C-alpha cells in the first residue's frame, strides 16, 4: 500500500485501529474461529514464555515420578498430565516443546511462502520459457522423496533445527509456487488489471498493487492450513528418528518417545498428540474463517453479526 | 371462479437475508388466458421474475417465504397443492425457459436426452419421448436434427441453445409457457428470430405466453397486455399501445423517456482534423480471423460509434488500439504517431491520452481499492498531472462531475450499484485528462433508466471537455442520439460507415437494414412497421437464396 | 487429447530424469554403505573389496554412466541389503502398497461422496454440522498418533486386532482405518462444496421446471457435474498413498514401498531407492492418465 496517499495525516493510525476492531468483531461473529484463535494465542504464549520459566522443571528428572499417572495433583500442577519415563512433568514438557514445534513450523511456512510466491509470480508473469522451467523444477521437488532429503540433510549437514526447517521449507515450496502461478495467470486477465494497463501502470505496480492483494488472501489461507501440515510433517519426521534429535524436544518427538511405553503408560504419547491435534484443528478453523474475512465481497457475512447460517 | 387459465392474486413473497427481510413482491395480481401474451416489464430488483418462480415452485423456502396470495391454475390454488402435484404440472402443463440458456442446460448430457427428459419425467415411454424430442428440434429450426440430438449444449450457438430450451419446454404441449428474459443475452437479429419463433409456436398450440422482460421493445413487439413492476409492486398495466401513449404512473413515464433512440440526431461537424487514423488493421486467433483489414478515421472531439453483433470484431479494435493485444498487421496513427510500433516505455506517455471504460464495472474496478485509491492511481502513475496536495480536492471534483457524492471517497466498489460503479470508472478515465475515451459496451450491462443517465453524462462531458469518444455497442438505438458517425461491423469487416442520419435513415447495406429492422422500438406502431419490413426482408433473402440455388 | 497425452509423457519423462540424476548423486552423500554392511572391526581391505564388488570405488560419473547404461536395458541393479535384483524387491513391496492404496481410496471415495452429498443436501442442518466436524478432525489428526492410539485401544486393551504384520484380513483393518481418516476429511469437504455449487446451479432450476423428481436431480443432474473437482482431489490423495504411507507402514510393520523406502535410505541401498522412485513415478503417471480419461468420460466439453 506504499504509494496510496490518504487525504489527511491522522487517517492511517485511525484506520489501523478501526481495522483491528473490525477484525475482532468479525472474529467474534464466528464462535468456533474465535475459540480457535484463543487457543492458538495460548499456544503462542506457551511457546514464547514456556522455555524461559519452565525449562528447569521440564528437564529435571525425578525417579519417583517415573511414568506417574495423570489427573493427580499430589506432585504439583505440572504433573496433572502425568510424568514421563524419567519422571519429568508432562505438562511442563509440552509447554516447553511448544516453542520448537511452533518455531520450526512457522519458519518453514514463512520461508516456503516467500520463495514459492516469488517464483510463482515470476512463472506467472514472465515469459513462457522461464515459467515452464520453474514449473518443471516444482515437479521435481514435488516428487523428490522428502524422507531422503531429510536423511541427506541429517547426515551431511548435521542435525539442527535450522536444517530441519530447510528440509520442510523445500518440500513445501511447490505448493505456493503452483498456487501463485495459477492465480496470477487468472488475475492478470481480469478487467481491473487491464484497466491499470490502459492507464499506463508499470509491471511492478500491476504485480504489487493489483495482483498481489488479490492472491494474498488465498496464499495466507493456504499458509495457515500448511502450518498445520508442516507441524504434522515435522512430527512424522521426528517420529521416524530423522527429524529433531534429543535433547531438543518437539511434540512429535514426545509422541515418538512415548511409543515404547504405550502398554503401561499411554499418557506419554497421548497428551503431546492431543496438543498437535488441537493446534492443527484450530489452524484449520482459523483458515476457513480467513477465507471469508479476507474477501471484501464476502466479508459482510461476518460484519452483519452472528446470524450467519448455511 | 375459474375465469382465467392462470391467475395470480395478491401474491406477496419475501426473502430472509443476512441484511434483513426483503419484500420481493408485495400483493401483486395478474392473469393470463389461453392464446394470449402477457408481458411483465421491470428493471433489475423490481421482482418481475418472482411470481414466475412462485408458479413453478422454484422459490427456496427458506430463505424465501410466500406470505400471502393465491396462484389459481384452472381454478386450483397451486400454493395449496402438494409438492408431487406441482411437480406433475411443471413441464407438462406449465413450462419455463430462462435468460442464459448455456447455464440452464446441463453441460454434461446430450441435448436430445435433456429434451426427451421432459416427457420421461411425466411417464412417457422412452421411444415416444425421443420421437417427440426429434420432432421439436426440427420444428425450432436446428440444422441436422438427428445429429443435434447427440450433441452437447456447448456445441451450439447462443440462439440455437435458446431454441433448444424452447423445444425442451414444449415437449408436453403445455398450456402456458413462461419466458424469463428469453432474448436478453442474444444478438439483435437472433432476438427477433427467437421472438417470432415463440409467436409462431403460440399460434400453433394456442398456449398462453408470459414474457418477463426489462425491454420496452420486447413488450411492443410481442405482448397483448403488459404489467409494469417497480420495487415489488405493479405500478401500471394495460396494452402496449395504451402504456406507450397514455402512461399514467411516473415510473412508466421515466422508463419510456429512458428508451434510447428518441432524441435529436447529431450532425458531424465538417472540416475537423483526424486525430486517429486506423489503416489495414488485422488480427487472427488461431485460424479465426477476428479483424480483416479495418480502416477508419476519428476526428478531434468527435464521437464514433462502432456497432456490430457478437463476433464482429468490434471489441478487438479497442484492444488493439490500446495495445492490450498485439495486432497482426496494419497501423494506428494517433496524432501522426504509430501507436502499434511504440515500445512499452513510449506507450506509457501516450496512454494518458487514450483511455477506456469497460463493459462490466464490477470487474473493471479493483475490489481491494477504495474509490479514492482507484481514481488517484492515475496521478500515481503519471505524477506530472497533479501535485499530491491537490489530489483530495480533485477526486472530490471528479466524483461530483460524474454525479457521485464527494463523501464516498473511502468506500469500496462493492458498496455501490452498477450504474454508480460505471460512474467511478468514468471518473477514473477522466482523471488522466485524456483526449479519447473508448467505451467498450460501457452501458450494455446497465438497466435502461441507468443506461440513459450514463449516456447523458457522457454526452455532457463530451460537450464540456471536448473529449473524442469511440463508443462500441451491439445495439443501434443506444448510439442514435449520442454518436456523430457510425461504423457498422460484421464478421471482422466494416460493412458500412456514415453519419448517424445516413445510417439510420438511408442505410445502403442489407446487413445494416437487417440490424435496424431487428432492433426493437418501444413504440408499438413503429414496431409493427418494422415487423412488416423484417418479413419483407426475410422474404427477399429467401427469394435470393432460391435464385442462387 | 492424444497430443496432450504426448506432451504430458514428455514433461513427466524430463522431470523423472532430473529426479533420477539428483537422487543418484545426492543419495551417495548419506555415506559409505561399507560402513553399514561390514562389521565395525572390518579391515580397510575388506571394505575396499566390498566396494569393489558393488562398483562403489569408481568415480561417481563412471558409476552414473554404468547405471544409466544398465537402466537402458531395464536392469535396475541389485539390492545391497537383499542381494537380489532391486526391481524385484521394489515390485514385491509395491504390490502391497498398491492394494493398500486401492482399498483405502475406494472406501474413502464411496464414504466421502455419500456423506458429502447428503451433507450438501442438508446444508446447515445437524447432519451437515456433524459431517463438517468429522472432516475437520480427520484433516487435523496426525496419522502416527492415531495409529498408536488405535493400537492401544483395539490391539492392546480390547485384543480385537493384531498390532502389526500381515497375514490375515484382520491385519489390514487398522492400517486402512488410519490411512482413511485424512483423505476422507479432505475429500468430504470438496464433495460437499461441489455438490452445494451444483445444486444451486441453473440447470437444476431447469430440471425442476421440467418436473424432474428430486432423486434424479441429485444423482443424475448434479452428481456428475460435481464429480469433476472431486476426481482431481481423489487423484492427488491416491498419488500420496502410492508414494508409500511411510509412517503407517512403519508402525504396523506393513511391507509396502514406503517402509522399503525409509529402510533402504537408512541402509544406503541406492539401487532400491532409485528403483522405488521410478516404479512409483510410473504408477502415478498411469493413474493421472486414468484420471484424465475419467474426466473426459464425465465432461463432454473436455473431449473435443
From TrEMBL, chain B:
GO molecular function, one term: ATP binding
Keywords from the UniProt entry: ATP-binding, Nucleotide-binding, Transport
Keyword Transport: yes
Membrane topology, as annotated: Peripheral membrane protein
Transmembrane segments: none
Matching Pfam families: ABC_tran, oligo_HPY
Matches recorded under SMART domains: AAA
Domain called ABC transporter: residue spans: 8-256, 276-516
Subcellular location: Cell inner membrane
Keyword Cell wall biogenesis/degradation applies: no
InterPro entries: AAA+_ATPase, ABC_transp_ATP-bind, ABC_transporter-like_ATP-bd, ABC_transporter-like_CS, Oligopep_ABC_C, P-loop_NTPase
Homology family: Belongs to the ABC transporter superfamily.
Protein known as: ABC transporter ATP-binding protein
Protein species of origin: Chelativorans intermedius
Automatic annotation (TrEMBL), chain C:
Transmembrane segments: 93-121, 133-160, 172-204, 225-252, 272-298
A Pfam family annotated for this UniProt entry: BPD_transp_1
UniProt KW Glycoprotein keyword: no
Keyword Disulfide bond among record annotations: no
Entry keyword set: Cell membrane, Membrane, Transmembrane, Transmembrane helix, Transport
Its membrane topology: Multi-pass membrane protein
InterPro entries xref list: MetI-like, MetI-like_sf
Superkingdom, taxonomy of origin: Bacteria
Localization per Swiss-Prot or TrEMBL: Cell membrane
Domain ABC transmembrane type-1: 94-291
Family: Belongs to the binding-protein-dependent transport system permease family.
Entry-linked PANTHER family: DIPEPTIDE TRANSPORT SYSTEM PERMEASE PROTEIN DPPB-RELATED
Name the record gives this protein: ABC transporter permease
Natural source organism: Chelativorans intermedius
